[in-house]
Specification:
The chain contains twelve helices and three strands. It has 310 residues and is mainly alpha-helical. A three-stranded parallel sheet has the order 1-2-3.
């Protein structure tokens, strides 16, 4: 069964004593008491081995062990491959540092993925990279997969988390799925409220909040480029088209100063001020657009008249 196979694999892995090649050679050096300057050789191995190819590491191991008459330890990365054929990798901060150093000459920024929010881990990674490449730009995933409240961070630690990362040289700090989770939260809370209170929930939770915070999507037709398309069509037709997405009957013309909530609604002074601000801007843009359209229409008529005379 699958369970039995998994148990057998776990038993084999525990008995096999899996380790990286640098770890295997370090053990061989430690197990050679008659080796001259064993401590120095061990220090050199630990300092250099993670930056070498496997063949170069084997050659260095042979030189370091030669005075003891011992050969480098046998190493087989084929035997522990998974059932699917994957090679096994022992991850860790040291492994991430070694890879980051190897890739530093070829990339602008380095990113170590972690399984928890931990400034100490990032500090170790940054120190290891900057010891070889000072000032190298780093990135950090403020992952929504972390259960941030479950990692013992105080309110003060959360508040300074980004600043602490910045001091380590982490110049790109991102949340991979912030928009996804924000959309899910907004849609869920709105749907539940709409089921109970209907359109009042949408007006209070979405439209008034968009107006209050001056969110461009309040006038989503304008935001999506409808005005731009109208102008492109006007250019192509000499302003002689008969229809326009943002024409006189367009519903977004309702978003003017007069569209603020009525007295019996719960509009705050900030909402009213925002509505007046946005409405005034919309009215000015409408007037400017009408003047430009009139000028283009007059120019087009002159062109048609000129051609008819020819």
């Amino acid at each position: 069964t699958v369970a039995e196979l998994g148990a057998l694999e776990a038993e084999w892995s525990a008995a096999a004593g899996l380790m990286r090649y640098p770890e295997a050679v370090a053990r061989a050096l430690e197990a050679a008491p008659d080796l001259p300057d064993r401590a120095g050789r061990l220090a050199r191995w630990r300092a250099e081995s993670y930056g070498l190819s496997h063949r170069a590491a084997q050659a260095l191991a042979a030189r370091l062990l030669a005075p003891s008459g011992r050969a480098p330890p046998a190493f087989d990365w084929e035997a522990p491959r998974t059932r699917e054929g994957f090679y096994r990798v022992k991850g860790g901060i040291d492994y991430s540092i070694a890879r980051a150093i190897a890739f530093s000459p070829y990339c602008d920024m380095l990113w170590m993925e972690t399984h928890r929010p931990h400034i100490g881990e990032m500090r170790e990674f940054a120190a290891g990279v900057h010891a070889v490449y000072p000032g190298k730009m780093l990135a950090y995933n403020l992952s929504p997969s972390f259960n941030w409240d479950a990692h013992g961070l105080s309110a003060a630690e959360l508040a300074r988390f980004n600043a602490d990362l910045g001091r380590l040289g982490v110049v790109w700090q991102f949340i991979t799925l912030a928009g996804f989770h924000a959309d899910g939260l907004a849609a869920t809370t709105l749907a539940r409220a709409y089921a109970q209170r209907g359109i009042a929930a949408y007006v209070e939770m979405v439209q008034r909040e968009e107006r209050k915070h001056q969110v461009e999507l309040l006038t989503h037709q304008k935001w999506s480029g409808a005005t731009l398309v109208d102008n492109q069509i006007q250019t192509a037709t000499g302003a002689l088209q008969s229809t326009a997405a943002m024409g006189a009957a367009n519903t977004e013309r309702q978003f003017t100063a007069s569209s603020a909530p009525s007295d019996d609604a719960t509009a705050s002074p900030a909402e009213a001020a925002a509505a007046e601000f946005m409405g005034g801007g919309a009215a000015a843009e409408q007037q400017q657009g009408e003047e430009e359209q009139g000028a283009r229409l007059a120019a087009a008529r002159k062109a048609v008249l000129f051609e008819s005379k020819l």
